[in-house]
Specification:
With about 80 residues, the protein is an alpha+beta fold. Helices cover about 10% and strands about 20% of the residues. A four-stranded mixed beta sheet has the order 2-1-4-3, with no helix packed on it. It is globular, with a radius of gyration of 14 Å.
Length: about 80
């Protein structure tokens, strides 16, 4: 770890943090094509995407550019929404 990070507490955000209670625990992620990253239901960038889905799932989603409902790494359902622009 870098010297400047030693005194900072880091925590891993788990997929349930991104779940909206109105979606029955399904993790919803939205792709922003202009910035090339995923957003959570609150509109915040997802920085640990590969703890939710695999890189292969992400590449398939980017190639298809359409809605996908997949099983995430931890067994929960993940909805991936393409850019609406």
């Amino acid at each position: 770890m870098s010297g400047h990070l030693r005194n900072i507490k880091l925590r891993v955000i788990t997929p349930d943090v991104f779940s909206d209670p109105d979606t029955d625990g399904v993790c919803q992620l939205y792709y922003d094509e202009d910035r090339n990253y995923m957003l959570d239901v609150g509109g915040f960038p997802v920085v640990n995407l590969f703890s939710i889905i695999t890189p292969n799932m992400y590449l398939l989603f980017k190639a298809k550019k359409e809605y996908m409902l997949i099983k995430g790494i931890h067994g929960g359902l993940v909805e991936l929404f393409p850019d609406q622009n």
